[in-house]
Amino acid sequence: MDIVLVPGLWLDASSWDLVVPHLTTAGHTPRPLTLPGLESAETDRSDVHVADQVAAVVGAIDESDGQVILVGHSMGCAVAGAALDARVDKVAAVVYVGGWPAEPGMIPAKNFPTDGADLPPVPWEEFDEADVRDLDRATFEALLRPSPATLTTEPFELGDERRYSVPAVFVCPEYRSADLKAWIAEGTESVAAIPKHKDVTYVDLPTGHWPQLSKPAELAAVIAETAVR
Asked: Which ranges carry the AB hydrolase-1 domain (predicted)?
């Protein structure tokens, strides 16, 4: 099965390089994406919009002959969720890693500081210790480049509530599934979409916020198991 891999902020397709071989060995066709605006550190991001990133994921889904497994990481979860909304019939299941889909009108990255057309990477020193657990700093920082600043101002537009019927797996890395369930019970706005899903699986994967770098084999196993189901 084709597995479309959507990176989060500041990362391109290469951020999935350690996961791809495991998925290939399991018999799947991984399709890691570089979203618009992430082509290089020097890319002009002044005219890159949320809709452009969503369209890139939709395009990858459309290129597959059959249904796909859709995987998003962090902010890429919101982008993947919007692509799911646009192509509900083409997605067999969606895996949200270290994040969750947005609800209509939400701006998940609204609190990040920007620099002109850029949303610069957060400095290593500003991450919580839990975020960077098991992560090699040099390897991580070598992958980073700015994301489009429009992600901090443009809301996600969604319209097909059938997306709530697609099986969803929530991988919890730097926090536990018990924490996520508590946030849901408290009515935390950012996770408001989760209780609307009809088929939800929670998976604890104890590591930092980037398990595709720190625990790639374990993350690939979760994705492959989702594909089998």
From this structure: 3-222
For 66, the domain range is 2-228
Taking every pair of C-alpha atoms in the chain, what is the biggest distance, in angstroms?
44
- Sign of the C-alpha dihedral, residues 5, 158, 37, 171? negative
Q: What is the DSSP string of the chain?
A: -EEEEE--TT--GGGGTTTHHHHHHTT-EEEE---TT-S-TT---TT--HHHHHHHHHHHHHHSSS-EEEEEETHHHHHHHHHHHH-GGGEEEEEEES--PPPTT--TTTTS--BTTEEPPPPGGGS-TTTTTT--HHHHHHH--PEEGGGGTPPP----GGGGGS-EEEEESSS-HHHHHHHHHTT-GGGTTGGG-SSEEEEE--S-S-HHHHSHHHHHHHHHHHHH-
**Measured between alpha carbons, how far is 44 from 46 in angstroms, rounded to an integer?**
6
User: How many folded domains does the chain comprise?
Assistant: 1
Q: What is the pTM assigned to this prediction? A: 0.97
Tens of pLDDT, residue by residue over 166-224, are 999 999 999 999 999 999 999 999 999 999 999 999 999 999 999 999 999 999 999 99
Looking at residue 46, its pLDDT comes to 96
Give tens-digit pLDDT for 118-150.
999 999 999 999 999 999 999 999 999 999 999
Q: What is the CATH number of the domain that holds 92?
A: 3.40.50.1820
